[in-house]
Amino acid sequence: MSQSSLPSRRNMLFGAAAVSATALLTSCTSNENNDDPEPDTQAQVSDEKPGKQVTIGFAGPQADHGWLNAINDNARKRAGTYKDVKLEITEGSNDAAAQDGQIQTLIDKKVDVLVILPADGKAMTQAGLKAMQAGIPVINLDRIFDSPQAYRTWIGGDNYGMGLNAARYIGEALKDKANATVVELAGIDNLELTRQRTQGFDDGLKNYPNIKKVARQAAEFTVESGQRKMTDLLQAQPKFDALWNHDDDQGDGALQAIKQAGREGFLMVGGAGSKNAMDNIKADNSVLKATVLYPPTMAASAIDLARALGQGKGVGGLAEFEIPASLTLFSAVVDKTNVDQYMPTGFK
């Protein structure tokens, strides 16, 4: 997930959620109106009339997390829907030097467009600049480069919006409860995304003066860290009314800790939109009642944008001839009322 400051949240909120964003982007032409495959049928070939052949290079970090693995899957599946797209995908690395070498290989292959989810946005800025200077437009995915000269378009999630919408959901659920308390299970504290999610959550809670955040623990986006840090929270806080967890992978561990402690009587809101989280929300047999999306379908949308760039098209539904400079996806809240709609976007 994003490791660098994202563009202002005043940027375009592109669609109501990942599903609608992907649906609009698929018709990446300002002159045609084509239906988009449903999220669970992305592997099917698009029935849109093929255009100019486009070779897209895709470079992402190592898929050592459920969300990152879903990023790669979404890119592959989306590319597979187009007869006029060839995808050159790298192995993926969390080492900036190794990823830089992979990107240089794609530049040397003279791909038409590059989609890059950098292992580290700041460290990989030069790689983006090299591609742009070589005449290869770059779609910067999620973790933003330090310089706008390093990319043609940025697309990613809204970390501040995740925290804000989590606070709103919890706030509405507890607005009639006097002296309500919440705790926060954050992500990795040295990441900008974690600070943004916490800031959004804190700002959202200001609209509910009856609710006070009484504790916060930072985990590491893993099941093990989630279980360990949630155990610490439970021991330190014998009673609270709600929990905001930044990441559904670490949320699996948090749920294990909650079950082992025999704790209930509070609601939990997760983050990112994993399949496990959505299954739990649908079953409605645990404290987990909602999750706030950070949609990995952004990778599918990045392929759509790359194809449009390679073919000189705009985006269907927009009047402009060019694709936008940045797209911020909306952090939709998924609960039992709409979980069936979003289930196809859940990642393992």
Automatic annotation (TrEMBL):
Residues 56-313 form the Periplasmic binding protein domain. It is found in: Cell envelope. Residues 28-50 are annotated as: Disordered. Keywords: Signal. One of its GO terms (cellular component) is cell envelope. InterPro entries: Peripla_BP_I, SBP_2_dom, TAT_signal. GO terms for molecular function: carbohydrate binding. The keyword Signal applies. Belongs to the bacterial solute-binding protein 2 family. This is Periplasmic binding protein domain-containing protein.
